[in-house]
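Q: Here's a chain of 258 amino acids. Please give me its 3D structure as tokens.
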Amino acid sequence: MLVDSHCHLDFPELRADLAGVISRMGENGVTHALTISTTLETFPAVREVARSQSNVWCTAGVHPDERRDGREATVDELLAMADDEKVVGIGETGLDYYRVEGDTEWQRERFRTHIRAARRCGKPLVIHTRAAAPDTLRIMEEEGAGAVGGVMHCFTESWEVAEAAMAQGFFISFSGIVTFKNAVDLKDVARRVPLERMLVETDSPYLAPVPHRGKPNQPAFVKHVAEEIARLRGAAYEEIAAATSRNFFALFRHARAA
């Protein structure tokens, strides 16, 4: 068993061949996946993909730097979206200052709204942070995100940030970036994160791992992430796969293994 804890199956690159994507998952030992919401507009398509597959679940939320909706989701709206057996988490949410210029208070307010919704519905958070770790951790603490927990997805931050997130009860998820030759610091974090706090993901169709780097990513490729972590830790692949799958179902309590 191996779970891709973060992918985007509604994106055109994957949705156009969903049957093939699901088939290749099985061929590579990837038994389950979580497909992630990024906008209000596209949430119905995300949910429909999850409803169409017994081994796929989804989240409800708006990506930190996404503006296409033209308005902000309310707590009540997020709760209504989350009121579905296929929705097992809130997000992806968080902060991303990398491409944003000027005032970023709207991002911080959006993040707070998502945390409040997660606490209300009791479903964990999927958190994205880029060039914003201090504010991300501060708001998580101020809003009591640890009450529901969650995952720091596609983690690329320092060991100190990982420690601070884990202290609030969060898991650390590694993507294909950990396979990149120049990701020296991230490889060190992957060696140090306790196995019981770790998840793996693809973030597909982006960030394909070695040996597929530069090509469209897909959930089947999460096995390469697990293989690299096993290599870094001197562990068996089966140990990493079993532990990260166990962690997924412990965190996303509303998901049920099919």
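Q: Can you summarize the key feature?
A: The mean pLDDT is 97.
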